[in-house]
Structure formats: C-alpha cells, structure tokens
Amino acid sequence: MSKTTRPSAAPRRSKSTAPAAPSGASLHIRPVCRGDLNAVIEMDAMVTGIAKRDYWNSLFKRYADAVATGQHFLVATSGSEVIGFVIGEVRDWEFGSPPCGWVFAIDVRPDARLLGAATQLLQSLCQSFKRAGVNKVRTLLSRENTLILSFFRSQGKMIGPFIPLEMDIEP
Ligand SMILES: CC(C)(COP(=O)(O)OP(=O)(O)OC[C@H]1O[C@@H](n2cnc3c(N)ncnc32)[C@H](O)[C@@H]1OP(=O)(O)O)[C@@H](O)C(=O)NCCC(=O)NCCS
Fold it and tell me: What is the pTM of this model?
C-alpha cells in the first residue's frame, strides 16, 4: 500500500518508544465516561461530516460499563483531552464463526495522528478480547478508505474468510 497520503510534516517514531501526545503529555487508554461523549461526537463529526448525538448517546448506554458482556468503548487521552476512541465487542457464533472480537469504530483526532494512539487503542481492546478468551479479531471497512486499511494492515490484519453481501429491499 502506498504511503503517499501520509502528511509530510508528520513526526516519525520508533515502534519501541512510547509515543508523545500532541500536548507533550503521555497517552493514556481508559474506558469511556459520560464526560468524554462531547469530544467523541465532535471527533466523529469531524471524520464523517455528520453529528449523530442520539446514536452516540445510545451507544454509550449499551457499551459503557458493559465489559462483563464483552463490550468495550475505550478512549485515548492526552492530559485532560480525549484524542481518540475505539469500540468493539466479542460476538459468539455470529455468521457461524466461533466467538471472536469485532472492532466497530476507531478514530483519532486529526491533530493527534501518527503518534501511536490508534495502535495503543487497538492493543488495549485486543487485550480485553484475550481476557475474554478469544484469539481472533475482525473488522469490516469501506474499500475506499485506504487510511483505515493502511492502519489495520500495519497492525497485522489480513483479508478474512468472509465476504460481505448486500441487496436492495424492494419498497
Ligand atoms: C486510521 C487512524 C485511526 C490511525 O490513527 P493513528 O493514531 O494516526 O495511527 P498510529 O499512529 O497508531 O499508526 C499506526 C500505523 O498505521 C499506519 N498509518 C497510520 N496513518 C497512516 C497514513 N496517513 N498513511 C499511511 N499509513 C498510515 C502506519 O503504518 C502507522 O505506523 P508507522 O507510523 O509506524 O508507519 C486515524 O488516521 C483515523 O482516525 N482516521 C480516520 C478513521 C476513520 O475513517 N474512521 C471511520 C471508520 S471506523
């Protein structure tokens, strides 16, 4: 995958060093709390162009404090600022597959990218999946979104054994 879309001014880092966050504070990964929601909604609106307050409120209700049922909503913070988030859950026997972890959404604020935040978010999520006893993590992405594809490839994800199918439902 070509990396020509990478911002030229982006700082490079060694995989072995802990990344510095934009403000210079170190990154911290923790479960989401109600006070983080505005930052998450703003970040999502920045990336998708649509503010979906009701959607995020309902997602928060379902995923916050739902670790016991295998659902995880984590945020990355730098100092007091939320700079990224990831959402995922363990699903049992869906699509006929043994229990595995699914990543539904991952986003990092544009001014905090290429510093390892998404890598740390995904690693924390995978640790939680591992604790839940699963050893496979899957996701689904738009084939046009080469940025997210580059990220997941960098983490070792490969094309899986499933193909998505869809059709229009007649009115
Ligand atoms: C994809 C995204 C989550 C990556 O976040 P990030 O914190 O910048 O990622 P990291 O710093 O952990 O990068 C890890 C690796 O991903 C790859 N990567 C990240 N950004 C990249 C870019 N712009 N171009 C090419 N490769 C890239 C690199 O291999 C990188 O490792 P390296 O820096 O050692 O080369 C972030 O760019 C983002 O939020 N994009 C929008 C996401 C989106 O579209 N979400 C909607 C669908 S869920």
Answer: 0.88
CA–CA distance, 82 with 41 (Å, rounded to integer): 11
Query: Residue written as tokens 């990478």?
Result: 6
What residues are in contact with ligand 1 under a 6 Å CB criterion? Answer: 3, 5-6, 47, 105-108, 113-119, 145, 147-148, 150-151, 154
Q: How many other CB atoms are there within 10 angstroms of residue 150's CB atom?
A: 15
Each residue's pLDDT tens digit, 131-170:
999 999 999 999 999 999 999 999 999 999 999 999 999 9
Q: What Cα–Cα distance (Å) separates residue 93 from each residue in 72, 99, 145?
A: 18, 5, 28
Cα gap 31→60, rounded to integer Å? 11
Question: Using CA atoms, how far apart are residues 88 and 77, in angstroms rounded to an integer?
Answer: 18
- Domain architecture of the chain: domains with CATH: 27-154 (3.40.630.30)
Residue owning the nearest CA to atom 22 of ligand 1: 6
CA–CA distance, 117 with 27 (Å, rounded to integer): 7
DSSP SS3 for 55: helix
pLDDT, tens digit, 9 for 90 and up, residues 51-98:
999 999 999 999 987 877 889 999 999 999 999 999 999 999 888 889
Mean pLDDT to the nearest integer, 35-41: 96
Q: Residues with Cβ < 8 Å from 111, sequence gap 6 or more?
A: 22
